[in-house]
Amino acid sequence: MSLSVAASTQALSAEQVFTLLERVRQKTPRVHAITNAVAQSFTANVLLALGAVPSMTIAREEVAAFAGGADALLVNLGTLDEERRAAIPLAIEAARTAGRPVCVDPVFVNRSPVRCAYARELLGLKPDLVRLNPEELTALLPERADADALIEAGTVFAVTGPEDRVESCGEDFLLRNGDPLMSRVTATGCAGGAVLAAFLSIEKDRALAAACGLSVFNIAGEIAASRSGGPGSLVPELLDALYCLTDRDIGARLKTG
Amino acid sequence: MSLSVAASTQALSAEQVFTLLERVRQKTPRVHAITNAVAQSFTANVLLALGAVPSMTIAREEVAAFAGGADALLVNLGTLDEERRAAIPLAIEAARTAGRPVCVDPVFVNRSPVRCAYARELLGLKPDLVRLNPEELTALLPERADADALIEAGTVFAVTGPEDRVESCGEDFLLRNGDPLMSRVTATGCAGGAVLAAFLSIEKDRALAAACGLSVFNIAGEIAASRSGGPGSLVPELLDALYCLTDRDIGARLKTG
Amino acid sequence: MSLSVAASTQALSAEQVFTLLERVRQKTPRVHAITNAVAQSFTANVLLALGAVPSMTIAREEVAAFAGGADALLVNLGTLDEERRAAIPLAIEAARTAGRPVCVDPVFVNRSPVRCAYARELLGLKPDLVRLNPEELTALLPERADADALIEAGTVFAVTGPEDRVESCGEDFLLRNGDPLMSRVTATGCAGGAVLAAFLSIEKDRALAAACGLSVFNIAGEIAASRSGGPGSLVPELLDALYCLTDRDIGARLKTG
Fold first, then answer.
1. Which GO terms describe its molecular function (chains A, B, C) (predicted)?
2. Residue A138 class from Cβ within 10 Å (0-12 exposed, 13-18 middle, 19+ buried)?
3. Which of B80, C22, C107, C181 is the most exposed place for a label (fewest CB within 10 A)?
4. DSSP H or E stretch at residue C148
């Protein structure tokens, strides 16, 4: 599902992508990630390999202190237990109050009506970015007008799949990097959401930040896939590639538009 | 402890094992795994490398929707917290109602009386398969007659160790694949349980499904151990081996009773 | 922050370090680790690679049975949720009653007042060892006299960073092994705490045990970094190096004093 069929997509240059990556590496932003138990360790390692710093507590007594002091907040709805349901609104409020960007990843809302209803409430809090796949988007916002209204109000959508599409009230981007082997590793999408949160923390143009973050993560994934014997070796290779990623790597591989 | 000393064991052919593996790869069954926090990520990656799809939520509000829509359910009792204790009966009921196989792995029942009592209640729900080691079996069912009664009623036992024994009211299997290095990696047993659940979803002969699933996982482990410098590199190698496993690998390595 | 500026530090020989490592490998102590969700899997794998056995349940109904039967207890305060807050005092009491050493790792107390207050209560239970970095130490014990009083009473402090300092009422140790790449992998510090707990279980001289445990883990990290292309491959390499670590490795790399 394309949210805005008519919109033309913007080109993205390797220089833009590398410039933002370098800003992440220099600022070492802290990303507070409320994410599912399956994804926590890999997400933390992706953030560290990128040059960011993860924090991950979900305890309601302290999540506001952690989220309010972080440079960005990721809210991922996988394994949505009681502790996380209690923590998420507190964390979003703290991040909002501190003026930090909020990225929401409504994992599997197409498989659970309870989760879908919860995710819709979060959309009412106007996150800066929503990352999801086409099936999740259809479940979350069956009416096209509702998605358009959110985009008008400033939320950016990053719709991921074989192609990734960034939709915003300004520029849109179409991105074609990545490798199918990435989908054979759990939580690659979730960890990619944390990369987007890190990029949002260093760039006010949210659509540009999302496009650059997606490109960095997917190019690292491509490099890793080219060096891997399967999904097991993809994990260390992806983290190494992210850690070592150069402007030449990006220049050689970036596929947009 | 052998459950049925008198029973002769059945041979298993490499062709049978590979045929079932290919059926898993073609059907890409979804396995809902309620498993311990330590095992979640590795279990998800094992399922993906095998060709199955994991889901893992433990939230009581949505676990029935996830388990009822899955092709098989794994219930692993490691780190048995409140959330999981509440979720497990709901998930089993949903899987039963949908006619899906249920696999129970009563991890460490020999170390905690509370957990052992809880596991005995689950046996009353007549799971399709129970995977455990001899110490756990002795703790769970100290009376031989109780184990025999469960087997008579249709539950299959997969008793794992240096040798693996599949015991059923039909055929039994004795399997000798695997490598000691696998026990130096956390959650290999737990992840192996998820493989059994995936195989149960594509084959009605539960004992045959269990025997093939154990063989696939342990042969992948053997190949990985032969390529590893220790338990760290065993993990990516095992996932790569599982992903790439061929009929020739199985033919060259399968060791049965 | 150095706790005892005036104290001279003790030399540590490669033979002492290897002797204690071999005692861990021969005894295969069980370490019950109440640790954060992000660190659980890596911590379990570090313990297994070392030659110890992990258990990790946090359920209040059974944590006492697990902790009381273990050879050492690790309490790590990362992701401090309700279940863990309830479990920790029960586990410490059970370990104390059984005469087992208790190691506390007050992760991120400098980022959360609630967590800092909780950690101070734990100090009142007089753990055998506290592992933390200088920032956490300053937050936890802003008054130097309070730290000195705890050390007088028998608690050992392992203050980790580019240099590691072990402070006790007896000998002190200054250790200089490790590699900066280790800080780009999540939970290396947390997993290192579990190694200290394993060493405490086989050696009554707590400061010596801590110094040897830190050296073993950091030398394995150095070897891994020398073989890694980044933080991704560091993980399997570290586990392999820990599993294979010899007296020659330690002799060639140990840096103390």
1. ATP binding; hydroxyethylthiazole kinase activity; magnesium ion binding
2. middle
3. C22
4. helix C144-152
Nearest CB neighbour to B66, from listed A42, A112, A228: A112
ipTM of the complex model: 0.93
| Residue whose structure tokens are 């398969």 | B129
Cβ separation C54–B228 shorter than 8 A: no
How many Cα atoms occupy the beta-carbon half-sphere of C105 within 13 Å? 25
Lookup: tokens for B19 = 């045929």
Strand partners, A159: A132, A165
CB contact under 8 A, C111 and A69: yes
Contact criterion met (CB < 8 Å) for C239 and B232: yes
Which CATH number do you get for residue B20?
A: 3.40.1190.20
Q: Which residues of C177-190 are buried (b: 16+ CB within 10 A; e: fewer)?
A: bbbebbbbbbbbbb
The pair of three-digit structure tokens given for residue A256, joined into one six-digit string: 């947009």
- Residue A69 CA neighbour count, 13 Å, CB half: 15
pLDDT in tens, B133-156: 999 999 999 999 999 999 999 999
> How far apart are the C-alpha atoms of C126 and C152, rounded to whole Å?
11
Residue type, B204: K
Q: Which of B37, B83, B243 sits opposite A82 (nearest CB)?
A: B83
Chains that touch B (3 or more CB pairs under 8 A): A, C
- How far, in Å, CA of A116 to CA of B8, rounded? 52
Number of domains making up chain A: 1
Of the candidates A95, C137, A37, A190, the residue with the CA atom closest to the CA atom of residue B59:
A37
Helix (H), strand (E), coil (C) string for A135-203 = HHHHHHCCCHHHHHHHHHCCCEEEECCCCEEEECCCCEEEECCCCHHHHHCCCHHHHHHHHHHHHHCCC
The beta-carbon neighbor of B57 closest among A80, A113, A236 is A80
Which of 46-65 (C) contact B at CB < 8 A?
Answer: 48-49, 54-59, 61-62, 65
In a domain? residue A67: yes
A232 touching C, CB under 8 A?
no
CA C2 from chain centre, in angstroms, equals 18
**Structure-token pair, residue B213:** 């699933």
Q: B233 is in which domain, residue-wise?
A: 9-253
Neighbours of B180 (CB within 10 A): 9
> pTM, whole model, 2 decimals?
0.95
Per-10-residue mean pLDDT of chain B, 257 residues long, equals: 57 96 98 95 98 93 93 92 90 97 95 92 95 97 94 96 95 96 97 98 98 98 98 98 98 94
Q: Is there a contact between B72 and B201 (Cβ–Cβ < 8 Å)? A: yes
Domain-embedded: residue C161 = yes
Q: Answer whether B191's CB lies under 8 Å from B163's CB.
A: no
Residue A157 placed within a domain: yes
C-alpha Rg value of chain C to the nearest Å = 17
Flag whether B160 is marked binding: yes
CA distance A189 to A183: 8
> Would residue A2 count as lying in a domain?
no
